[in-house]
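Weekly modeling sync, notes
Attendees: S.R. (lead), two postdocs, one rotation student

Agenda item 3: backlog of single-chain predictions. S.R. asked that every request posted to the team notebook include the full sequence so nobody has to chase files. The rotation student volunteered to paste the first one in as an example of the format we agreed on. Action items at the bottom.

Example entry:
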Amino acid sequence: MKTKFLTLLFSIFLIAGLAACENAENDTTEQTDLSGNTSTEETDAEEQDVDELFNQIRNNSPTSERIQALKDIAMHYYWYGGDLKEAEAEVFKGITLHGDYDVVEEAFKQAIAIEPHDMDLKFALASAQILQTEVSEALNTYEEIINYDEEYFNAWLMHGIYSKLEEDNETFETDFEQLKELDEIKAEEYADRITMVDEIKGVTLETEIPSDLNEENHAFVLLGYALSDDGEMEDTLLKRLEVAKEAAEAYPNSKIIVSGGVPKQGITEADVMFDWLVENGIEEERIIKEELATDTIENALFSMNIAKEEEIKDITVISSATHMRRALVIFNEVNNMLQKQGENIERDISNLVYMDFDNEEEAEKATKDEELVIYRDLIRASGIWQFPGMQR
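Predicted structure, as returned to the notebook:
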């Protein structure tokens, strides 16, 4: 027992000097979008940042600095990854790390050991567990939060949603009754969101260009896919572009929003998509670049803002079939948000896909893993950050 305590104490002091490090968020994507839609950008500068994290170690730092140091480690590995063996040797002694998200999880566990009263740290830990599909562990963490703070709305919400995912409908219903006690209006809004997910799970994934799209006031929104390290497009993005070209030719009055802002070799996904479409005969004045988005949520946020500014009524989202249900949930959530903020447009959001499921049977039904990511990103798009105060 004494040895374990000393090991923990040593680990805590060992990372103490990291407080001066900046949060590592930059112009890059989330580390894993679980659709292949995004990926991290590894550069020499980022690798140097990882070295600096472990070179700036000093002892006897205040509590707040030690906690901030652990947050910095968590966010750096969330965005960029790093050397797992170095992390094992320098920070998390005695723990075998299997992936970057292991570092994120362990960093929050150690931060909680320093400050067990901070429920936002526990919420962040649960989010790290969800990222690794450790649903049972996350449910236990949410229960710890609820036991400590019965009014922590977001913990009740997540516990209810992931209980539903685990087919524990009794707990789901009990949790939502508690949510209504805390805030009836918000609880009803999230119940409506869950209904929306159930409806979109049953949507037909369109592989043929629809014949009934709006001839005017319409845009196709083409979602990007991570470029290779040398700035070249992968086959998935090429397939999406081929679908978009055919659709654009069928609807010559429609705009095309190309969305993707992760740079490789100074080139964004939007740049590559724009160039390819122009080279293949689509008039460049029809194409609008959205080159800031780093993940599907930002694809929706930034593209829908463009639709609002351009007074575009209806949109058709173009992506891979394996990505589409999640994209539709997020685009509908963002559209609902815009309407609440006063945008007076009844917008139709349709879909067109590059079919990347192995067969039609797989395409018809969302798997449990797909549902988990749909709910995770829906909650993020609704305004609840998965790592409070650090990362949406």
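Discussion: group reviewed the output briefly. Confidence is low (pLDDT under 50) at residues 1-43.
Action items: rotation student to repeat for the remaining queue; S.R. to check formatting next week.
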